[in-house]
Specification:
- The structure is a single chain.
- By secondary structure, the chain is an alpha/beta fold.
- It has a domain of 151 residues: 3-Layer(aba) Sandwich (Rossmann fold), CATH 3.40.50.300.
- Helices cover 42% and strands 16% of the residues.
- It contains 13 helices and 9 strands.
- The strands form 2 sheets. It has a 6-stranded mixed beta sheet, sandwiched between helices. The protein has a 3-stranded antiparallel beta sheet with strand order 2-1-4, with helices on one face.
- β8 and β9 form a beta hairpin.
- α3 crosses α4.
- The longest helix has 22 residues.
- 26% of the residues are buried.
Length: 383
């Protein structure tokens, strides 16, 4: 089991230790490896509180939590987690690329690996063209995409998504569903917390439904949603005569019971995505989010081999082979020459004129005496 919860409760209290709200009330569930598990419920039902206790961000009032067989506050456990919070709290002054590099550094990823993963993730979430823009300039949907990318930077074994499609357009919602499906195929575990039932229905294997802090329903979607009292029959398009024959047979079989015949319908999401795909095929320009529709390569598989390769490189003795620098191009050569000339001008010593020899005191006295004699001679001549 990846997650095991038993008798979990959380009571929020005021300054006087009086009970204000019982957010979670004695719940128990398990999450298996390789499944997508949904936590559903209306606002205020205890979904986000449960998620925060699974992450070790809140202490439970009572009960036990085990994540990968350990306490969720263990730092080794946190290295295997990825978390997208309900609100994306990011540094507005960092660019998209700097944000992913920062979170990658928290997991001790080498600089080259951080750069590689950041480029792949930005391409995956459709923001490669905006990687040098500050997060503060992003719309809510764009910031949400960066939040998803940071949750995946460490290739987590357990990914926890709290309201993952909040603020996203239908294209972004589909990309998240595709990503979750891929992670499940790789044996990863995903917990999705949402009140948007259509999104959960498409991707979850099992769900629990909370209300008032308690689990009101639990099971697989197939067991919970199957209506055993009626049947649906889907046939190819029939000619009018064949349709009449089939309806007559149904009337005679069902007698007075009502039945309904209608054409199957696509969902609005399917129709929307089809319209957007046709527009893209016509190469229509847009200033909005672009998506390559490609999952980051390191998320597609071979993560363990890649990690082993990185560790081998770090453990290997450093080779001090000096490689000759590549020859600079013409433009770089000119820039280098200009910089060297400017540096020479700044560092060139100014030539100082030779110092004049100072007269001796005797020579000074003699010069002053001669000057006084000349003045006396001029005065005598005037008389």
């Amino acid at each position: 089991m990846v997650v095991e919860v038993s008798g979990l409760s959380k009571i929020f209290r005021d300054f006087w230790n009086r009970s204000k709200a019982k957010a979670v009330d004695d719940i128990a569930f398990q999450v298996r490896q390789g499944e997508v598990f949904g936590i559903l419920g209306p606002n205020g039902s205890g979904k986000s509180t449960t998620i925060k206790m699974l992450l070790g961000l809140l202490y439970p009032t009572s009960g036990t939590i085990s994540v990968f067989g350990k306490n969720p506050r263990d730092t080794k456990v946190k290295h295997r987690l990825g978390y997208l919070p309900e609100e994306s709290y990011l540094y507005n002054y960092l660019t998209a690329a700097e944000t992913l590099d920062f979170y990658g550094a928290l997991f001790d990823l080498p600089a080259a690996e951080r750069k590689r993963r950041a480029e792949q993730l930005l391409d995956m979430v459709g923001l490669a063209h905006a990687k040098r823009r500050p997060i503060g300039e992003f719309s809510k949907g764009m910031a949400r995409r960066i939040g998803l990318a940071q949750a995946m930077i460490n290739d987590p074994d357990l990914l926890i998504l709290d309201e993952p499609t909040s603020g996203l357009d239908p294209i972004g919602c589909k990309e998240i569903k595709d990503l979750v499906s891929l992670l499940r195929d790789r044996g990863k575990t995903v917990i999705v917390c949402s009140h948007l039932l259509s999104d959960v229905e498409d991707i979850c294997d099992r769900v629990i439904i909370l209300y008032g802090g308690k689990i009101r329903a639990e099971g697989t979607l197939n067991d919970l949603l199957t209506v055993s009292g009626s049947n649906t029959i889907t046939t190819p398009a029939l000619a009018p005569k064949e349709m009449e024959k089939m309806l007559a047979a149904l009337r005679s079989l069902l007698k007075d019971e009502e039945f309904k015949v209608e054409h199957p319908k696509r969902t609005l999401e399917e129709f929307f995505l089809d319209v957007v795909e046709r527009a893209r095929s016509e190469n229509i320009e847009t200033a909005g989010v672009l998506s390559g529709g490609k999952i980051a390569e390191y998320l597609e598989g071979g993560g363990d081999a890649e990690k082993g390769k990185i560790l081998d490189e770090l453990a290997a003795p450093e080779k001090r082979e000096e490689k000759a620098p590549p020859p600079p191009d013409e433009e770089e050569r000119k820039k280098t020459e200009k910089a060297e000339q400017a540096l020479k001008k700044l560092t060139k010593k100014k030539e100082t004129p030779p110092e004049e020899e100072k007269p001796t005191p005797a020579e000074v006295d003699k010069a002053e005496l001669e000057k006084a004699n000349r003045k006396l001679e001029k005065l005598m001549e005037k008389k």
